[in-house]
Design brief:
By secondary structure, the chain is mainly alpha-helical. It has two domains: 1-30 and 117-281, no CATH class; 51-111. Helix content is 72%, strand content 0%. Helix 1 packs across helix 4 (123-156), helix 3 (79-105) runs parallel beside helix 6 (178-212) and helix 4 (123-156) crosses helix 9. It is globular.
Length: 281
């Protein structure tokens, strides 16, 4: 474990990110800005309204509440069981919500291919680009903004709350059952990235695009909403807001939800790897 410590891995990720930025600066120095969004999504192609967003939220909350209630009745309400019930309900609730959102996108309410890119962008290209984008944002999001956020909230607001997600606390606890740890890893590494990107970028960001008729206001506001759902991790807000903005840009830049889903997946998976190697404290 000492050869692959979290600190060393954090440094490796940061150096890769700086190398990616150096390559991008050289490549795009004489070209059009890489942050352009062209062609932009057509707001006229977005036919769903706020009822779709509200409907998905209600489905998710209903499924979570039903599952949680049934499990409480069946197994009791001890603290460990409550968390286990909550995780299981979150997994199943988000899974059902994913199915509802995919149904919305292919029901005629949204006339654009979203899960896979349209030519000439190939699926393998998006896979590689998403990994490069993750490494490029690592020094900014995971190192700089996260450190600044923690320092700011501690010194200005005298924040004494958690600096890491509760999932890591449970994963570090030797008394946490192996099944619960497996559910937490599944939720973080796969289900949450898919569910959250379908909801925030697929539904909310596109709905805001239809309202504002411009991409960047929709991207920035959706990124803020994405950060706010992670309360009470207040020190993470600046980093998560920037992450949400980058996820939103990648969606409109490559015209496929596969891009933000993959970036989000790399982000969560790398966080788990850093935790496993001791990089998350």
């Amino acid at each position: 474990m000492s050869e692959l410590s979290g600190t060393n891995l954090d440094l490796v990720f940061s150096l890769i990110g700086l190398a990616v930025w150096a390559r991008l600066i050289v490549y795009y120095a004489s070209r059009r800005p890489y942050l352009r969004i062209e062609p932009r999504p057509d707001p006229a192609g977005i036919a769903f309204g706020p009822e779709a967003v509200l409907g998905v939220l209600l489905v998710f909350l209903f499924v979570v509440q039903v599952i949680h209630t049934v499990l409480e009745m069946a197994r009791g309400t001890a603290s460990d069981l409550e968390l286990s019930n909550q995780v299981l309900a979150d997994i199943l609730g988000k899974t059902v919500a994913i199915g509802v959102m995919i149904g919305i996108f292919y029901s005629g309410w949204y006339q654009r291919e979203i899960l896979f890119p349209t030519p000439p962008v190939h699926k393998k290209t998006v896979l590689g680009l998403s990994l490069l984008i993750y490494f490029a944002i690592y020094p900014l999001v995971n190192v700089l903004l996260l450190s600044l956020g923690i320092t700011f909230f501690r010194r200005v607001f005298h924040y004494t709350g958690p600096d890491i997600h509760e999932a890591f606390t449970r994963l570090e606890d030797p008394t946490t059952p192996a099944a619960l740890k497996a559910n937490l890893i599944l939720l973080a590494a796969l289900i949450s990235p898919v569910a959250e990107e379908l909801f925030f970028r697929g539904l909310i960001q596109n709905l805001l695009l239809r309202v504002f008729r411009r991409a960047w206001p929709a991207i920035i506001l959706t990124g803020l909403l994405f950060a706010l759902i992670h309360i009470p991790l207040y020190p993470h807000m600046p980093a998560l807001w920037m992450l949400g903005i980058i996820l939103g840009w990648s969606y409109y830049r490559y015209r496929t939800l596969a891009a933000p889903i993959l970036i989000h997946l790399w982000f969560n998976a790398a966080s788990l790897i850093l935790w496993w190697t001791g990089g998350v404290e």
